[in-house]
Structures are given as structure tokens and as C-alpha cells.
Amino acid sequence: MLSKIQSIKNEVAKVVVGQEKMVDSLLIAFLCEGHILIEGVPGLAKTTTVNALAKALGLNFKRAQFTPDLLPSDILGAEIYDPQNNSFKIKKGPIFTNLLLADEINRAPAKVQSALLEVMQEKQVTLGDTTFKLSPPFFVMATQNPVEQEGVYQLPEAQLDRFMLKLIVGYNTKEQELEIARRISSGKFEAIEAVVSREDLEALKDAIKNIHVDEQVEEYMIELVNATRYPEEYGMDELKNYIQFGASPRVSIDMFKAVKAMAFMRGKDFVTPVDVAYIAKELMRHRIVLTYEAEAEGITTDQIIQKVLETVAIP
To answer: What domains appear along the chain, each with residue ranges and CATH number?
Structure first.
């Protein structure tokens, strides 16, 4: 089954240079039936990667550009009056797809954000008197631009909690950027082919669920989450004034899923603390609320998580 994962990565690599962490995180979130939020400056191949992934998986892909004047109906769809038949008909929005890219989600007002996040949680859309179940799989990748501060609506903590992972994407290396420029200028991009079927995807999900997690590793993950809530119990008194709210219970649930996928993608049939540490920041960075004091001193959630990883005893 691991060869299927590699085949998907090979197809994505036809049009995406580098960004291995982004591709791995997308696959983890998708196979665990979660959603992902990606933060990074424009031009880092976020849209290209999701489009390539959808083609490699043989799934439908749609992109919604979030803007300040966007309405919930622009995403979900609406009832449209048909004067010829004197009746209303349903016009479905871009949410009816398998992979949805919500581009610059923080540009849309709260009504649109909450409408999308409700669908992410419930996997259904209600238009008028009719409720539509979304056809599985349904996966949302949302992006936000950290540079601009005007005309943006930051996602509240409760909405951020709906995302399994939050990934911070950085620039490519100089060598990778040179390769990107050469490929685009010469137009040398190979066509992406679907390399897995729906049955293959279900088999991959089942294989991930069967990955073994030792009881000590399970307890270690719960300790990590608990340490963000009660740092003083772990000898991290200095963090108490920096954390307003620790990681939510959803972190524990998502962590148990994600580390299995991480181990599977590394070719192992069991989870180690290394797998946990590799993805801990992506799981928790958007689910810890800092105090004003922490923000004033320039303390980040990544620094908090790093301290927790260094302090909590490894089994």
C-alpha cells in the first residue's frame, strides 16, 4: 500500500517542486478525513498542489476565492426562482465537490467562514427545505495570507479548532526556485494522471487505522496535550502566564489519527514518539490561545509547543 502513497507523491512532483512537508500534511489530513489550514505568502504553489493532488487521486476539485463581499450562498448554493415553471430550483455551490480550496479564507466575513466550517463538521448542506449529504470524500484546504492586515477577518479560535492541521509554508530553496523558473519558462510540465481508485483510498484509510500505537505512546500524547493546559504541573511555571487556553480535546482525537498516518507514510506499522514530535506543531499551533503578555513579548505558540516537547518525558 505504501507504493500507492509514493505514486501519488510522484504525480504531484510533476508540477510541484519541493514543498514535501505540505504534500505530506495534505495527504495525512485527507487520509484521516480532516481538513487543513495553510498559511504562507502568495506564490508558494498552494493552489497548484491541491489541484495536482485532486488529479492524482482522481477526485473533483473546486476553488473558491474568498473576498470581503462574499455571501454564504456563493459557497453553499441557493434556491433560484424559475419563472417559466413558477417554482424554485436548487443551484449548488462550489462546496459540492471532493477537494475544495478555500483561498484566503480570512478575507471573507464571519458569516461565510461559519457556513463553510459548519459544512466541514457536519458534511451536509441545507438549502431551503432540502438537506444534501456531501459525497465522500470531502476535504477542505483553506489558505490565509499572513502579510496583509487590512480587509481581513481573522478566524475565531473555535473555528480554527475545526482544522486538523495548520501548516506554515515557507519559501523554496534557491535550487528549487531555479528549477521552478526553468520549468515554467519552458512549459515543461508533464500531465498528471489518476494513480489510485476510490477503493484504493478506502484501503489506505483502513491500513492507517490498523497501525499499532503502544499504550505508553498514547499516554505520552495525552501528556503533551495536558501540558499545554496545566504547564505548572510539569515544571514549566514560566509558561503559565503565556497560555490563556491550552489545546482542546479535538487535538487528542486528531493526534491519535494523524500519528498513525505519519507512521504509515514512513513505512512503519507502529507509532513512535518521533512521529508524534514531527507533527505536534501542525496539530496544536492553532489551538493554543496566548495571553496578551505572550504576544507583547513576541512568544509564539510554536515556541510553547517546542518547550512542551522538550519537557514532557518521552516513553
So the answer is: 2-186 (3.40.50.300), 211-311 (1.10.8.80)
